[in-house]
């Protein structure tokens, strides 16, 4: 029983340092430039701004971009509120939300899973099953 408690606490401690912070592109009213270069990258406020937002405005003089960090509630409300105005024509406004690092930048191919991906849940599960046979049977 003691080992099971130890393994559980070990798993909790492994995840204790994880902060919910992402990076997003941020710019205001950029014309013809979608501001997806390194100088526009910002760190979003930890545990508050948990999404990236992208606004695409079609104006008579061309396409304008607005990008920022956002809270999930505010972003989802604004994107659903503007859905009817997202036509792609002049005076169109399209707002999208996403929750992965730099996801409000240019569209990219989907990344393939790599060894660098966090394996903490797998490690905790592995340790638990490794230590289970060591528990005394009552």
Automatic annotation (TrEMBL):
Gene3D superfamilies hit by this protein: CD59 (2.10.60.10)
Its keywords, alphabetically, are: Disulfide bond, Signal
Q: Where is the signal peptide, in residue numbers?
A: 1-19
Name the CDD domains on file: TFP_LU_ECD_LYPD1 (cd23559)
What is the protein's given name? Ly6/PLAUR domain-containing protein 1-like
Per the UniProt record, the lineage of the source organism begins with: Eukaryota, Metazoa, Chordata, Craniata, Vertebrata
